[in-house]
From TrEMBL:
Keywords associated with the record: Copper, Ion transport, Iron, Iron transport, Metal-binding, Oxidoreductase, Transport
Domain Plastocyanin-like positions: 62-172, 186-329, 445-568
Record organism: Trichomonascus ciferrii
Name of the protein in its database record: Multicopper oxidase
CDD domains xref list: CuRO_2_MCO_like_1, CuRO_3_MCO_like_4
Length: 589
């Protein structure tokens, strides 16, 4: 590593093979390295199939990422965790060691990966597996079938908020946009996340208390690839300490006159971002792994769980450094957090041939100008689905089965006014020791007792669907909060989204109204936002046997119950014995 002048060492942390330096007065920290290429063992069989093998150790370590110390969850000592790079046809094997203390379990969900024939590897605790016990390990094994931008994260409690996430990039196959096809020259992965100075469990406790009034906790900061500055003048928590000038902007070095594919992932617990690069126009080419006709844009709105790819041209400009901006859309929050500066910044510098110019570009704050058309927010929406046209034409078929669900967050007096999230009349909670996949396969009883006659537990909304059926799902949102929903194991067609005019609260689904659907090659994706007090209609084909979660990706809504599941029966896969043993262990605690 090379540091620049005025670099003062304030911390040295050695975590496995990772060495992290925290510096005080150096404007830039060191460029993010692509750790996913360093910790993998690659095996190639006689048929040429590659197997990517990883050993991951999950543990908490205290870090002053932005000047405020917090116990973060690190994977192999890294935050964000490793980015996996694979190709279509690869098999991925990740042995996850839970080194968390006490009785804290964990899991890994591979967001957007379809898991065809490997439903048990989906990582959804209470649905497809039990949590990995502390001191134990579990090996995930699955195939990469489709190219695109994906990611992984914990599916236990608030662990994602505490840092347990990373990227997953798949190339090859029949992808249209690629370096091989000369669509772009190089690529970078940009992971956006919000940040709370308190632990996820502490923030969740506040949300469940009377003090919150049912208002979802608003972040205090945000990161680009795990980095950002923080102004300690904003800090108001009297129980914690803020050390000035510890945080740094994420730094990216680009070459002039090249085309970069920027893969953007929103790993946040709550925040919707508007992503932009000063004075650089985007050509958006991918949404949630689906390649689309190029869409010109100055900014990209991106909700929790979503991914986009955009081509950026680095032209000869009259400056060599530019701000990358990820601004949290405060229109999506229910109150203003005075600790938060909603605009998270990274810095792009054009590479120079001289050391003098390199020093100059690194020591100067960019003077680039923000796009004028993103100065204000008045909506909390995704990128307009009507402008996103998949390259592979696929019309939405007529449905064989229609399911209508109503979402609502309710504060109940019998629960001390704690907010609980509902699909219809069910507020989900994981079945301890009895995930629904195991129940469906007859491996365990939902009540863990011999006399239960009810297949599913009382906190489970499971919809049975016949194989190959086209399911139409209508979601009616009765909340003042938008809901970015994610469907495991499938892409879906978005055939309708309706948001009522601002200030109106009556945009929910009305079956007596006439509804028009976009069925001619509508966008397909796996995560989308249902507007506040609005409704949406999606369709998907039940062509992937298993039990698949459908839930809000805002962590506060998921942890308080906004999850349902689809059971595509005729499941034939075998559950690994270690998963059965770990569930048995959970039942004895």
């Amino acid at each position: 590593m090379t540091s620049f002048k005025r670099c003062v060492l304030v911390g040295l942390i050695c975590l496995g093979s990772l060495l992290t330096l925290f510096v005080v007065e150096d404007f830039f920290q060191f460029q993010i390295r692509d750790w996913g290429l360093r910790d993998v063992e690659v095996e190639v069989d006689s048929d040429g199939q590659r197997t990517l093998k990883y050993e991951w150790h999950i543990a908490r370590h205290t870090l002053p990422l932005d000047g405020v110390e917090k116990k973060m969850i690190l994977v192999n000592g890294m935050f964000p965790g490793p980015t996996i790079h694979g190709k279509v046809g690869d098999r991925v094997i990740v042995n996850v060691h839970n080194d968390l203390e006490g009785e804290e379990t964990t899991s890994v969900h591979w967001h957007g990966i379809k898991q065809r024939g490997s439903n048990a590897m989906d990582g959804a605790v209470g649905v497809t597996q039990c949590g990995i016990p502390s001191g134990d390990n579990l090996t995930y094994s699955f195939d990469l079938d489709e190219p695109g931008t994906y990611w992984w994260h914990s599916h236990v409690g608030t662990q994602r908020l505490d840092g347990m996430f990373g990227g997953l990039i798949v190339k090859g196959g029949d992808e249209h946009y690629s370096e091989i096809n000369n669509s772009y020259d190089e690529e970078v992965v940009v992971i956006l996340s919000d940040h709370y100075h308190r632990s996820g469990e502490r923030v969740l406790q506040w949300y469940l208390s009377r003090s919150s009034g049912g208002q979802e906790p608003v972040p205090s900061n945000g990161f680009i690839n795990g980095q950002n500055v923080y102004d300690c003048e904003r800090f108001m928590d009297t129980e914690l300490t803020c050390i000035p000038k510890v945080g740094r902007h994420a730094h990216f070095e680009f070459h002039k006159n090249k085309r970069y594919r920027v893969r953007i992932i929103n790993a946040s617990a709550m925040a919707n971002f508007r992503f932009s690069i000063d004075e650089h126009e985007f050509q958006v080419i991918e949404a949630d792994s689906i390649e689309i006709e190029p869409v010109k844009a100055h900014y990209i709105p991106i909700s929790s769980g979503q991914r986009y790819s955009a081509i950026v041209h680095t032209e000869n400009k009259n400056r060599n450094s530019f701000f990358m901006r990820a601004e949290m859309n405060q229109e999506c929050f229910n109150y203003k957090n005075e600790e938060l500066d909603p605009e998270i910044k990274g810095v792009i510098t054009y590479k120079s041939n001289t050391f003098k110019d390199l020093l100059k570009s690194r020591e100067s704050i960019p003077s680039s100008k923000k796009w004028e058309d993103i100065m204000s927010f008045d909506m909390c929406l995704d990128m307009d689905e009507r402008t996103l046209q998949p390259l592979t034409h696929l019309d939405a078929p007529e449905p064989d089965q229609t399911v209508v669900v109503w979402t609502k967050i309710v504060q109940l007096h019998q629960n001390n006014l704690a907010p609980y999230a509902y699909f219809n009349r069910t507020s989900w909670a994981p079945s301890i020791g009895a995930p629904n996949l195991h129940v469906e396969l007859g491996l365990v009883n939902a009540s863990m007792g011999p006399k239960s006659t009810k297949k599913w537990g009382g906190k489970q909304m499971v919809v049975d669907i016949e194989p190959e059926n086209v399911v139409q799902l209508i979601i009616s949102n009765g909340d003042e909060s938008p809901h970015p929903f994610h469907l495991h194991g499938h892409d879906f067609w978005i055939v309708k989204i309706y948001e009522p005019p601002k200030g109106y609260i009556h945009g929910q689904w009305d079956p007596d109204e006439h509804h028009e659907y976009k069925t001619n090659n509508p966008i397909r994706r796996d995560t989308f936002t249902v507007p506040r007090f609005g409704h949406a209609v999606i369709r998907f084909k039940a062509d992937n046997p298993g039990i698949w979660a459908f839930h809000c990706h805002i962590l506060w809504h998921l942890t308080t119950g906004m999850m349902m599941q689809f059971n595509q029966n005729h499941i034939s896969e075998k559950i690994p014995q270690i998963m059965l043993d770990q569930c048995s262990q959970m039942r004895t605690l």
